[in-house]
Amino acid sequence: MLAFEHTDRAEFFGALDACYEHGVDAKVHRDHADQVLTAEGDVGTLAEVDIEPWDVQDYVLKRMFDIAFSGIGLVILSPVILLIAVAIKLDDGGSVLYKQERTAVFGETFDVYKFRSMVENAEELTGAKISDEDAGGVDPRVTRVGRVLRRTHLDEIPQLWAVLKGDMSVVGPRPERPEIDSNIQAGVVDWRKRWFVKPGLTGLAQVNDLTGAEPEKKIRYDLQYLKQQSFWFDLKLVIRQVWKVSIDVVSAIQ
Question: How far apart are CA 217 and CA 206, in angstroms?
């Protein structure tokens, strides 16, 4: 039975991994566990753990891959980064990057940077909201250059820095803004469970074209990723995402 006074991801996974290694069933005390750890519909003081830990080797491989992918990506894409910066400046003369707070592991937050694809201070009047483009509509706040960036996902390139720093991973549930997370939680009970792994640039939901505009569908893919996660599963998702982005870029050029 695991009953840590404070939910510590590393400590919890270490104990849980030892349990799995020796064939010991693990339960958590509800007063000493975050709800992201427990099985859906489980009742009682003691609850089944619904997360299977990665092997240590997988953790090391995942982090090494994150560092290599983001570092090499930033170097190779440096000419593209320069071209995008110039295009944004020529379009409306505004800032090239914008910063947003996003939700990380266990509901903590971190700052993420993206290429600006909307007009300056786009949410000044509306507050935090999911873009209409995510739901297949047209968002008047998106600039001309921004439409190309969003369609090709090139606006995400600066997030490679967050991956290199360790705030994000290449693969994981896409992080949302805290305000949007709060709104989604009111209608999607299991939403917090996606916080148990590091957020990512892409994930199972993204390669299946699901966005935050459809949280009920998206959470099913995020929870499936939590169950299936492994280094080799991550590689498959990265290959699928790179292929999708390549097709989108070629389509935009044509």
Answer: 11
Q: Which amino acid is at 151?
A: R
Contact present, 192 and 222 (Cβ < 8 Å): no
Interatomic CA distance for residues 234 and 225, integer angstroms: 9
Closest by CA position to 49, among listed 2, 83, 102, 95: 2
- Cα–Cα dist 189/95, whole Å: 38
**Token pair in block for residue 160:** 């490679």
Q: Which of 24-33, 86-95, 137-146 has the highest mean pLDDT?
A: 86-95
Q: Is 47 helix (H, G, I), strand (E, B) or coil?
A: strand
Rounded Cα gap, residues 31 and 73, in angstroms: 43
Find the helix or strand (DSSP H, E) in which 232 lies.
Answer: helix 231-253
Rounded-to-integer distance, Cα 151 and Cα 132, Å: 13
Average pLDDT along the chain: 83
Q: Find all residues with CB under 8 Å of 96, minimum gap 6, and list them.
A: 84, 85, 88, 89, 115, 116
Is the pLDDT reported for residue 66 higher than 90? yes
* Band (96; pLDDT cuts 50, 70, 90): very high
> φ, ψ for residue 114 (rounded to 5)?
-140, 160
Please count the other Cβ atoms lying within 10 Å of the Cβ belonging to residue 219: 21
Owner of token pair 């498959």:
236
Is the pLDDT assigned to residue 79 strictly greater than 60?
yes
Delimit the domains of the chain by residue range. Answer: 9-48, 56-253
Residue type, 188: V
How many percent of the chain have pLDDT more than 70? 84
